[in-house]
Amino acid sequence: MLALNELVARVEKEDGEGKEIIKGLSLNVPAGEVHAIMGPNGAGKSTLSYVLTGRDGYEATSGSAELNGENLLEMDPEERAAKGLYLSFQYPLEIPGVPVMTFVRTAMNSQRKRRGEEEISAPEFLKKARAVAKVLKIDADMLKRPLNVGFSGGEKKRLEIFQAMMLEPKFLILDETDSGLDIDALRVVSDGVNALRAPDRGMLVITHYQRLLDHIKPDKVHVLAAGKIIKTGGPELALRLEDEGYDGVLAEANA
Q: Residue 249 sits in a domain of what CATH number?
């Protein structure tokens, strides 16, 4: 599904020079699995998500990144999305004047067009949107409002999962989806994410905290530090990090 091999990437700085953040990162997430990435601040977690999805200013300089055997690094961001790559933002953007429903249907039809598929009809779209909104406890008025404008942190995160459930991507990257969520909102968002689990779909969950992984059970947990994966384990690794912090794992890696 997602295969990264010795990926090196940098971020462009305001002075025009690049700073290397990802430093030889290798990772394999098979179809049907959910992997979590944890790590201290500045480790490169969000940078990794931006490199994979093609955000401006984030450049892979060597190594490889493939989705289902296809080279992501040769695709523009729109093509990556059409191939099934989805990023749930840590800080979702607000778009004044663009209603949620208009935005989501436009995104769906744009991806369908790139794949050579027919556009989704209005009745089919509305039926699906209502069903997904019910799962995520999103009311109809919220879907009529401009995208994320005036939304609480929990509403924004629920809307990110709403978009994912509507688009049905092949691979999801969830960048600190638990940020800003209270207990009830965390449970609702997690239920939506779990509903997206499928044998032909993979997920990469980026988080600081064990609490999200209590709801979204990962198959593997990876610790990212200084641009590299320094340790991989099962769900018990996240519990260890919650109890001990990162110092012990970092010391082991540097021993």
A: 3.40.50.300
Q: What DSSP state is assigned to residue 237?
A: H
Q: What is the pLDDT of residue 16?
A: 67
SS3 74: helix
Q: How far is CA 226 from CA 10, 36, 52, 191, in A?
A: 12, 17, 18, 32
Cα 35 from Cα 39, distance rounded (Å): 13
173 residue type, one letter: I
d(CA 83, CA 79): 6
Q: Please write the tens of the pLDDT for every residue from 131-175.
A: 999 988 898 999 999 999 999 888 898 899 999 999 999 999 999
Provide the domain limits for residue 180: 2-92+169-254
Phi, psi for residue 115 in degrees, rounded to 5: -90, 0
CA 125 to chain centre: 23
